[in-house]
């Protein structure tokens, strides 16, 4: 193309302004359409609106369900759910309160941390928590003071030792421990247990010492013989199997053992009065305890527990020895020495003998000892490593021992100390009472209880636990059971129970509970699970969907049930109960059925269809809530699909009710014939206001029932694939198919009436919000939208049947669109268009375009691609093709009809512009050669701009582009017209003339492109432009250029040939010694041109272009008679320079002719060979011998098949150019069509 010079400033200004106005296009929401079209619905009683509202109602119903956070949680008692109560009797309540006061009165252990309250503070708190009046409180305090004081017990667990000294030859020791209580004063008489009732409870205990496993009562001990007591005592305390004959010799009364000597060592060279580190005189003692022997170790682990009754906790100490056991007989012998003990002093001699024996080296070796004060033991106990000490300052002892120590009490009542079930029950009740009190205080300030007790309550509970010697797991059990009970009674959030379950389960060990404790746990497990299963059955009422608090409470409840199912103690206590997961699933299913029964009974009393609609809506809402609210809770925490269980139960019961309801209804009759007749009458212009003559009533209820059923069964998509296979299959849509057919028939008439009414009421006044349109366009597209929305809401499940309904819907929309197009064309006459009533014309074409663009969305709106895929899969290619053909036929014919109407009106409106364009292009074409084309084209552009700006303000962008395309076509044709051949009397059209027209064409193209804001390149380069551009481009070239171009294009055509239909010519061409050698070897497969079926061929050789090879005349071969495969084998020399052969477009033309004697020779084909790549041009001084073996060129012969070749046409029109006419005449004889 021609390089255009920079246009003048005014031309650029015009190009910048045109098409840069803001786009006036339709960009509105459906909601805005409906606001504009409210009145048209009154024509048919809002026929389409009633059905299109079904999907809106569905969305609004779901949105309402998501806004329930402010719903108050119901009272479960009001729902009929029984709440278990765990109240204690009044008598037990008073006893428990006295027990609390008794516990406070006899606090034990050093106060530490949170357990450092004073007695008075604890009494006040207990009074408030129990709700006791002041006078009653004083009474109960007196009763608690009159109770016998408890006996303080020291609990010691010998855990382990490490780093002991090796005493055996193998480098190890066999350590065991002996331990006992060392009174605070050494004289024996000072440590005889006093019996006065007035003595202090901490220093006047009358309970006999005993081991951890001793369970005999005081009365039984008094009835036994002294020897039996001693035997029982040693059987329980010592870890050795003492022979019966030794035990039978024990005759010393058990209460007489009151002292022993411990850990002393007599030094051989020391003063006899030397002070001993552990013992200076006979040491009074309560008991001696011994651990088991741990053989061959320096780091023994025992973990053995012992108990000691205390007389004076402020003065008593714990003494412990570690010995290396050498042989069992020495232990038995040492124990047998107890037979010689007659007093406390004798017991001291016994240990003295043990020590002396150890010192002599022939019995057990001493490894170390510890002496510990007991008055500093905290109430929480201690777990500490203690460094071992020697018997004197000079002893060399190593290692340390770990001891756990804590204090507890027991009552001197004669009951078994191991049986603390009463204390366990009391502790649980106490926890529950304190929890009740904490809840009341929290609710008084408007807060929920966080599960934490007051510090005073914790102190009382702690004292009660240690005084009752409750183990850690017993305390955990009490806290767990009391929390479960309080949560059941108060219906509290279970968020704290999971933590309690985890702690409880971690502490539990096999055989850690008594039978009574396991039975109590079993009961609370069963009550708790049953209570919460009942709530799950009523989950819809107890935990309303959308409520944030209900969500959290349900989440914690499910987590708690899930954790309980994994607890070891649960499986131990409830081995025969079903898995909790399965029980929850059963509760969900049963609760769903119960709920359905309640709502179905409640919903009855209305007509059958309304009942089914309302019932199904309720179920849909419930399933939606189950899917979005409940399902994730159950799936994530207990691995149950709540939605699946609920859906499958509801599906079955609903299907039964729907079948019963539909069986009572009558199917509608066929009205298609009457509908077609009515539609034809409306199309012919008859004013039909109503369709009541159809004699049917398409009730909204029936199709609404289908929609809600479709929504219900659509929830199947949320089931897993395996679960989906087990659901029932019920083709419910088949019953509604006749109803849908009738609705579509009626919709045809209704939509036709709406279109006619909308056009009649349209006064072609622009809307305020959308100046480019009037009301009728929105009325029509709104009707179409409601039809599409209705179909989308139906979501017909049978895609094969749906394809037929889609075609019917397409027919309705296309028919009404065509009808609207027909009516709108009548609103403006051709005379009005010619009179340049542009505003009215623009409104009409904009309205039609608005409707047309709505049709382009139909494939997506009706799911075209999916329907095609389903038809191919289920019905085969034939059904698929039929659907595609009918759908595209309706689509294409209607959109083409509307577009043609728009183009016709726009073309009519620019007829006057056409005259001006032709006039200005004539002036441009014949302007003086001295006037630049850029200036000559300005009047034309200014004229176009003045008219197009008006259209740009009135038309939609797409319509304005159509108008631009029309005007562009007119402008191009105007230039083409000026470039037509000279007529008689016209001035000669020179090359400069055509150059000016070509440049004007390029300028106009840039104007209409408008810097990318106007017409696209594809629209600009239409067929008219391509023809004009080629014609003007060729016309502005010289004859020689055209001839060169003609042969260059012929060479390109020859290169692209794939078949050789006119024969082949074999030649050899090379450059040698300043001449071009051409060898004509042979030809084959020539076409027969003589009557005998043969030819008399010869070849004419010519060098081209002629202006380059002006002195090289053409030459020809001899004539070969009667053959189609002539063998020439002739060589020709052409004088030519190297530069001539290397020139651009240099080539050899081979023309094969058929010699005739009487008539002119016939053309048999031509071939071309470019000289740019022949041998010899780039090989220097080569000898001729180098070219004899060259492979010949096989050139296909050609005919000119295009009789309208543009180059030949251009040359033909150059009447004033003799050479052009001669070339044209020569080539005309070679056109194939002349044969």
From TrEMBL:
<feature type="domain" description="C2">
    <location>
        <begin position="135"/>
        <end position="354"/>
    </location>
</feature>
<keyword id="KW-0963">Cytoplasm</keyword>
<dbReference type="GO" id="GO:0005770">
    <property type="term" value="C:late endosome"/>
</dbReference>
<feature type="domain" description="MHD2">
    <location>
        <begin position="934"/>
        <end position="1046"/>
    </location>
</feature>
<keyword id="KW-0268">Exocytosis</keyword>
<keyword id="KW-0967">Endosome</keyword>
<dbReference type="InterPro" id="IPR014770">
    <property type="entry name" value="Munc13_1"/>
</dbReference>
<dbReference type="InterPro" id="IPR052095">
    <property type="entry name" value="UNC-13_domain"/>
</dbReference>
<dbReference type="GO" id="GO:0099503">
    <property type="term" value="C:secretory vesicle"/>
</dbReference>
<protein>
    <recommendedName>
        <fullName>BAI1-associated protein 3</fullName>
    </recommendedName>
</protein>
<dbReference type="InterPro" id="IPR035892">
    <property type="entry name" value="C2_domain_sf"/>
</dbReference>
<dbReference type="InterPro" id="IPR000008">
    <property type="entry name" value="C2_dom"/>
</dbReference>
<feature type="domain" description="C2">
    <location>
        <begin position="1056"/>
        <end position="1185"/>
    </location>
</feature>
<dbReference type="InterPro" id="IPR014772">
    <property type="entry name" value="Munc13_dom-2"/>
</dbReference>
<feature type="region of interest" description="Disordered">
    <location>
        <begin position="192"/>
        <end position="227"/>
    </location>
</feature>
<feature type="compositionally biased region" description="Polar residues">
    <location>
        <begin position="192"/>
        <end position="206"/>
    </location>
</feature>
<dbReference type="Pfam" id="PF00168">
    <property type="entry name" value="C2"/>
</dbReference>
<feature type="domain" description="MHD1">
    <location>
        <begin position="703"/>
        <end position="824"/>
    </location>
</feature>
<dbReference type="GO" id="GO:0006887">
    <property type="term" value="P:exocytosis"/>
</dbReference>
<comment type="similarity">
    <text>Belongs to the unc-13 family.</text>
</comment>
<feature type="compositionally biased region" description="Basic and acidic residues">
    <location>
        <begin position="207"/>
        <end position="227"/>
    </location>
</feature>
């Amino acid at each position: 193309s021609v390089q255009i010079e920079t246009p003048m400033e005014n031309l650029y200004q015009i190009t910048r302004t045109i098409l840069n106005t803001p786009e006036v296009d339709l960009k509105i929401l459906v909601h805005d359409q409906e606001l504009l079209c409210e009145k048209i619905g009154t024509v048919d009683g809002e026929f389409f609106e009633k059905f299109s509202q079904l999907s809106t109602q569905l969305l609004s119903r779901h949105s309402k369900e998501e806004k329930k956070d402010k719903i108050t949680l119901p009272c479960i008692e009001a729902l009929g759910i029984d709440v278990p109560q765990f109240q204690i009797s009044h008598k037990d309540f008073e006893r428990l309160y006295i027990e609390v006061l008794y516990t406070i009165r006899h606090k034990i252990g050093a106060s530490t941390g949170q357990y450092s309250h004073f007695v008075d503070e604890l009494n006040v708190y207990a009074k408030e928590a129990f709700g006791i009046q002041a006078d009653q409180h004083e009474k109960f305090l007196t009763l608690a003071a009159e109770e016998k004081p408890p006996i303080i017990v020291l609990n010691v667990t010998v855990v382990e030792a490490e780093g002991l000294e090796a005493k055996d030859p193998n480098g190890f020791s066999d350590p065991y421990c002996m331990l006992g209580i060392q009174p605070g004063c050494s004289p024996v008489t000072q440590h005889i247990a006093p019996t006065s009732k007035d003595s202090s409870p901490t220093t006047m205990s009358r309970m006999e010492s005993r081991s951890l496993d001793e369970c005999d009562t005081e009365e039984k001990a008094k009835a036994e013989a002294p020897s039996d007591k001693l035997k029982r005592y040693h059987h329980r305390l010592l870890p050795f199997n003492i022979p019966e004959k030794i035990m039978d010799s024990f005759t010393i009364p058990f209460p007489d053992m009151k002292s022993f000597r411990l850990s002393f060592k007599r030094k051989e060279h020391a003063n006899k009065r030397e002070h001993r580190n552990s013992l200076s005189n006979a040491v009074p003692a309560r008991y001696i305890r011994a651990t088991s022997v741990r053989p061959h170790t320096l780091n023994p682990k025992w973990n053995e527990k012992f108990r000691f009754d205390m007389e004076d906790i402020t003065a008593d100490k714990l003494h412990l020895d570690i010995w290396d056991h050498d042989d069992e007989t020495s232990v038995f012998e040492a124990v047998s020495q107890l037979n010689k003990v007659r007093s406390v002093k004798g017991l001291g001699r016994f240990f003295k003998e043990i020590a002396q024996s150890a010192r002599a080296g022939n019995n057990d070796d001493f490894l170390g000892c510890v002496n510990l004060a007991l008055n500093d033991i905290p109430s929480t106990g201690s777990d500490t490593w203690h460094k071992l000490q020697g018997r004197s300052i000079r002893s060399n002892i190593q290692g340390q021992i770990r001891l756990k120590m804590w204090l507890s009490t027991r009552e001197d009542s004669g009951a078994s100390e191991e049986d603390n079930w009463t204390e366990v029950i009391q502790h649980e009740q106490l926890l529950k009472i304190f929890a009740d009190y904490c809840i009341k205080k929290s609710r008084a300030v408007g807060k929920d209880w966080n599960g934490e007790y007051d510090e005073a309550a914790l102190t009382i509970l702690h004292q009660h636990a240690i005084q009752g010697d409750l183990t850690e797991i017993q305390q955990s059990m009490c806290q767990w059971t009391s929390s479960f009970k309080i949560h059941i009674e108060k219906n509290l959030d279970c968020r704290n129970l999971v933590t309690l379950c985890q702690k409880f389960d971690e502490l539990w060990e096999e055989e850690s509970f008594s039978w009574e404790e396991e039975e109590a746990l079993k009961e609370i497990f069963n009550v708790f699970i049953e209570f919460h299963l009942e709530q799950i059955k009523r989950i819809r009422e107890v935990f309303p969907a959308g409520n944030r608090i209900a969500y959290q409470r349900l989440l914690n409840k499910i987590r708690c049930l899930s954790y309980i199912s994994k607890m070891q103690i649960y499986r131990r206590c409830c081995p025969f109960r079903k898995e909790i997961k399965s029980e929850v699933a059963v509760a969900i299913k049963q609760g769903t059925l119960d709920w359905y029964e309640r709502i179905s009974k409640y919903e009855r009393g209305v007509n059958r269809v309304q009942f089914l609609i309302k019932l199904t809506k309720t179920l849909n809402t419930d399933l939606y809530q189950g899917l979005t609210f409940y399902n994730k809770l159950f799936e994530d925490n207990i691995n149950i699909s709540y939605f699946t269980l609920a859906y499958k139960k509801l599906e079955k019961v609903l299907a039964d009710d729907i079948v019963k309801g539909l069986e009572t209804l009558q199917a509608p009759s066929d009205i298609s014939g009457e509908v077609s007749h009515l539609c034809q009458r409306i199309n012919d212009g008859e004013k039909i206001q109503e369709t009541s003559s159809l004699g049917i009533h398409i009730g909204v209820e029936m199709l609404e029932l289908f929609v809600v059923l479709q929504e219900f069964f659509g929830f199947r998509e949320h089931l897993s694939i395996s679960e989906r296979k087990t659901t029932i299959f019920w083709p419910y849509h088949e019953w509604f198919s006749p109803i849908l057919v009738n609705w579509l028939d009626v919709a045809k008439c209704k939509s036709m009436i709406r279109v006619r009414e909308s056009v009649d009421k349209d006064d072609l006044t622009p809307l305020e919000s959308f100046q480019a349109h009037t009301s009728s366009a929105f009325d029509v597209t709104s009707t179409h939208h409601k039809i599409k929305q209705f179909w989308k809401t139906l979501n017909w499940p049978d895609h094969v049947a749906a394809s037929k309904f889609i075609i019917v819907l397409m027919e309705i929309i296309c028919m009404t669109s065509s009808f609207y197009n027909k009516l709108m064309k009548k609103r403006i006459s051709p005379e009005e268009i010619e009179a340049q009533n542009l505003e009215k014309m623009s409104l009409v074409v904009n309205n039609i375009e608005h409707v047309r663009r709505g049709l382009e969305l139909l494939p997506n709106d009706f799911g075209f691609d999916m329907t095609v895929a389903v038809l191919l899969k289920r019905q085969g290619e034939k059904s698929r093709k039929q659907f595609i053909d009918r759908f595209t036929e309706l689509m294409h014919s209607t959109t083409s009809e509307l577009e043609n109407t728009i183009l016709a009106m726009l073309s009519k409106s620019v007829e006057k512009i056409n005259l001006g364009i032709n006039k200005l292009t004539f002036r441009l074409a014949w302007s003086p050669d001295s006037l630049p084309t850029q200036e000559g084209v300005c009047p034309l552009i200014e004229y176009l701009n003045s008219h197009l700006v008006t259209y740009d303000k009135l038309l939609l962008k797409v319509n304005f582009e159509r108008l631009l395309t029309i005007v562009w076509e007119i402008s191009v044709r105007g230039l083409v017209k000026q470039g037509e051949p000279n007529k008689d009397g016209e001035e000669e059209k020179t090359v400069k003339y055509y150059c000016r027209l070509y440049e004007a064409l390029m300028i106009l193209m840039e104007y209409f492109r408008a810097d990318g804001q106007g017409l696209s390149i594809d629209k600009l380069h239409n067929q008219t432009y391509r023809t004009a551009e080629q014609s003007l481009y060729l016309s502005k070239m010289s004859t020689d250029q055209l001839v060169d171009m003609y042969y260059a294009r012929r060479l390109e055509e020859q290169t692209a040939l794939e078949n050789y239909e006119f024969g082949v010519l074999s030649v050899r061409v090379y450059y040698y010694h300043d001449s071009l050698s051409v060898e004509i070897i042979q030809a084959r497969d020539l076409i027969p041109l003589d009557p005998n079926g043969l030819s008399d061929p010869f070849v004419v050789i010519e060098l081209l272009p002629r202006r380059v090879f002006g002195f090289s005349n053409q030459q020809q071969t001899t004539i070969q008679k009667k053959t189609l495969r002539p063998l020439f084998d002739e060589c020709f020399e052409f004088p030519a320079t190297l530069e001539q052969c290397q020139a651009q477009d240099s080539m050899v033309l081979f023309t094969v002719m058929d010699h005739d004697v009487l008539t002119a020779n016939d053309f048999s084909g031509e071939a071309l060979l470019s000289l740019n790549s022949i041998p010899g041009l780039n090989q220097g001084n080569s000898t001729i011998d180098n070219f004899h073996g060259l492979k010949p060129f096989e050139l296909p012969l050609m005919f000119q098949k295009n009789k309208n070749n543009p180059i030949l046409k251009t040359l033909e029109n150059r009447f004033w150019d003799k050479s052009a006419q001669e070339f044209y005449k020569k080539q005309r004889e070679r056109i194939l069509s002349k044969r």
